[in-house]
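Weekly structure sync, notes
Attendees: PL, DS, HV (note-taker this week)

Item 1: PucR family transcriptional regulator ligand-binding domain-containing protein
DS walked through the input record. Source organism listed as Solibacillus faecavium. Sequence as pasted into the shared doc:
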Amino acid sequence: MITVKEVLNRKYFESAKVVAGQSGLNHAIKWIHILEVIDVKQLIKGNELILTTGVILKDNEQGFLNFVQQLSDLEVAGLCIELGMYIQVVPESVINLADRLDFPLIVFQEIVPFIGITQDLHTAIIHQQYGILKQLEDYSQKINNYVLKVNDKAKILQYMQKYLNVNTYFEVNKGTSLAIPDKKIENYKDFINRLNSKNKASLEMNLFDQVYGTVHIYSEKREITELDLLILDRTVVTLSQFVLRDLYIEEKLESENRKFFEKWLEGKNSDDEIRYFIEESEQKLKQNGWMVMIHQMRRKNIIKDLTNYKINLRQALQKEGFYTFIVEQSQYLIFILNDLGPEATYKERMKRAMNELINQYRLDTLIAVGKYVSHYNELKESYQTAQETLQIRMTNMELSYFYDELLLYHMVKVLQNNNSLMQAAKEKIEKLSQYDSKHNTNLIQTLDIFFQCNGLKKETAEKLFIVRQTLYHRLEKVEQIIGSDFMNYENRLCLELMLLMTKHNYYEGMKVT
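Item 1 (cont.): predicted structure, written out as tokens:
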């Protein structure tokens, strides 16, 4: 990038003199502009070298000050003024302001052809841009060849760092961040934030619409150039492809480990086999809690590229502190999860990960999370409870997908498997069902909501969208059919269980009226 200092050595600047802003001579120039207006906000993009005859500044010291301040705020590279016809001398106040702003103020002591300056510098800038593109192409070829020889993302960043001679910091959202060279800085983010904006640049690295991390480059000795930015962009693209390749390889390895995972879920692996596998994967895993999560995907909504979906889901879970192994079975995805965070917050973290994914893919997916167990050898129990939870949620997707929040429903499922109890429940509720069918009423639903509202009639009526007089009439009918003591503790408990056991037989999908 051409700087103001370099421009001063070109032929049209032989009579030029820097009268202020010496400290800003390293400002980069991207374009040349001739301006003869004071309000320039709509005309400036930054890094221009401005040429003016000063016609707008004649006998207007305050306007001159405002003009210089405005150009500095817009990050203009510098201002060149032709002395003579309109301005004979730059006011001292303007010189002092430019010095304070480190804003180069250059005067031509002789008349110079502005058109000649613009042609000369524009030609130089275009040639330089061509040179930048050649450098970028050369860098791209070299780093692409280099990536084929390495198996570590740190080496990719190190290659860029040495090529640009800048400091590099890779801030990973969930994982170990990298500093190259490895300086002993307590907080890199704070350190980089304190630097001048011209001495640093950052670019996010995205995988599947999620920010995997951010690559920062910075230098305390020089400004970041356009070439630096282009090379940063090219490096981040290369790094993304490298990380993505690793993730796909990881998915492939898991597919090859499918039989091992299935035996693990069924409790058929030995302790030594599991321990060895875990230690090969990640040494710290076995010391934390474990659980199984199942995703049942509707056949019409099964994602075409399931690998991308799994990688994205793995990233969402990893961000929330879960290490994952994935088993793919037909329309099921089974996740073996190791919780690396505190057990007390695992539900909250899990919900965040699932909500992020469901909102992104807009999927009608049935999710079930099994019992949270403390040891990898207890995974079979978590898997079984996840399967049971999935069965329960099939009839009511509004229920929680955590096993331990559905204990009542698990108890009911056990009762439903007892033919004698199930028959007794049906007989008790059948009387209300027959009355509903004959008179087109909703006594079963009314009783269910009444129990849910703990016998509060006002709340029950509101939930059913009926007036209280109608509710009183319905409850009287219930008393006539099943007895007036149905609200006694034992009777009520029995009825509530019977309703849970049989409600789907009688009014699943009925509208509340």
